[in-house]
Give the backbone structure.
Amino acid sequence: MKSLMVLWFLLLPGTAQSASVWDALSVGVGAQGVWLEGGDLADLRDIEATGRAAFGVTPHIALVGGLAYGFDHAYTRESVGVRLTATDVNDPTFSVGLGVSRHFRSEPGGLDEWAGEAAIGWKPLSGSEFLLTASAAYGLDSSQRQITAGLTYPVKLVRGVQ
Amino acid sequence: MRIIDVINEIITKGALAIPSLDAFLSGLAKKFPDTAGEIEEYRSELNSQTTPEGLLALGKTVFDELSHFKGLDPRQSPSNLAG
């Protein structure tokens, strides 16, 4: 019930919301490849469907989180964390971020721990909202490396939100 | 207050300071004759800003620079959706 209320709140028409707050929220869905290697665990690669959300607390600090489903190995994984973001002033369609996230996983074999991470995002086409995204995460306990690269489509939920 | 009003106020107040700066440069040119030629170039460029056309061009430059940031919300940086 609580989840439904949150979802309803997100889907309310923008006119009922405070745009200044909601402008800091970004949500996207997409698909990506994921590669896991090194550390104490076996190497693994998969294709994932992803849903990501971020809230920019300040222009340079963002709370980030996401959900992914691996089609080949049938797992779900989640992450939530914080990133320091730097955006190119001359090209705001490109940015990089450094941060740390707590990763969770439904099946063994991947990151299920705190991980340091670096991410890049780029909106290459002016006529399209699609983003090219990539990230690298390093498990602080397992020393496993996780690399992702894929496409993300920003979703408008309320006025001003991508 | 709109951003264009802020720009207009900055330019208007800045224009008042131009004669003082021009007089200062003129004094420097007299004190250091060997730099007079170079200072004169700055003076002529400075004084060209005091004309209505100059102020208009200056305002347009400032506004264009600020417009560069229009729509930029770094809180929605693309990399935040990577992971």
